[in-house]
Amino acid sequence: MPDVKRSLNRALSRTTGLRLVRAGAATRAKPVRDLVPARRELRAPVFILSSVRSGSTLLRSMLGSHSALYAPHEMHLGDLAAQATSWFAQTALAEFGIDEGELTAMMWDRLLAEVLRRSGKSVLVEKTPNHVFLADRLAGIWPDARFVFLLRHPGAIHQSWRAARPNEPAGETVAYLRRFCTEVQRCRATLPGLDVRYERLVADPAGETRRLCAFLGVEWEPGMVEYGSHGHGSYRRGLGDWSDNIRSGRPQPARPLPDPAEVPRGLRRIARDWGYLAGPADD
Predict the structure, then answer these.
(1) Phi, psi angles (nearest 5°) of residue 236
(2) Are 59 and 48 in contact (CB under 8 A)?
(3) Where are the residues of the annotated region Disordered (predicted)?
(4) Domain span holding position 184
(5) What is the pTM of this model?
(6) Other Cβ atoms closer than 10 A to 22
(7) What's residue 35's pLDDT?
(8) Is residue 224 part of a domain?
(9) What are the pLDDT digits (tens) for 30-53?
(10) Could you tell me if residue 14 is inside a domain?
(11) Which position among 18, 73, 211, 260 has the lowest Cβ density within 10 Å, counted as fewest Cβ atoms?
């Protein structure tokens, strides 16, 4: 068999320049030992880290109403990856200290820099909830990134999710939301940033947006409250919240907070850690 393979490869090489190799690990280049991160085009981006159903579309609409802040719909960076599909491409990239992870980082950076350039503004704000699971990677790609931790009563998150998906098994809902909330809490402990509470945002939108502007180093603008007078793209499924509340163009009052007994097991410890419940949690 080796002689046959050699004969085939000689013939293929003469006629096509190609050769047969065994599929699998042998076709991949060795790991890049000395990674060399590319120079980033995007400067000091802002990432809103939150659970789902926490008001991130509202917050991005208010921030995006500022003349300097561009807050597009959810970008879902985690679903975008660059790949070198051959050993030759992997080897070529490795000579420059680039692997597929860095290649993907370069693509994300170029994408966000481009959408910011098209907006004509100077600061990008991104709010995809799933990015909470990429927070460490985002911080590594953009060491100058700023983080905003958007918190909401976990019991209210649960109520909002159940209202939108009443047929989902209750246990699956709690496990899903707990995963988000737990990661938000971890990020709060490991990354620098600013806490913003949904309940305060809708109760005092002017005060909370002033505080956010101070954190971001921009002057507050009153038009941030009446965000409906600015263009924010489509409010539709897959790009964030598309409810009547968000389409109203201004913050709507929060629903009453759930009673402690209404907070499901699995979310009580987070609710306590975030200051929404007192006493020991019985998760």
Answers:
(1) -150, 165
(2) yes
(3) 243-263
(4) 28-273
(5) 0.84
(6) 8
(7) 78
(8) yes
(9) 677 677 788 999 999 999 999 999
(10) no
(11) 18
Q: What is the pLDDT of residue 258?
A: 93
Q: Which residues contact 178 (CB under 8 A, 6 or more apart)?
A: 266, 267, 270
CA dihedral 224, 49, 177, 260 (to 10 degrees): -60
Phi, psi of 197 (to 5 degrees): -100, 130
Q: Is there a domain that residue 280 lies in?
A: no
Closest CA to 267 of 151, 187, 164, 166: 151
**Total domain count for the chain?**
1
Q: What angle do CA 127, 131, 133 make, to 5 degrees?
A: 150
Q: Is residue 149 part of a domain?
A: yes
- CA 52 to CA 158: how far, in whole Å? 10
Residue 147 to residue 131: CA distance in whole angstroms: 11
What whole-number distance in Å separates Cα of residue 235 and Cα of residue 281?
37
Return the CA Rg of the chain: 24
Which single residue is written with the structure tokens 């597929």? 100
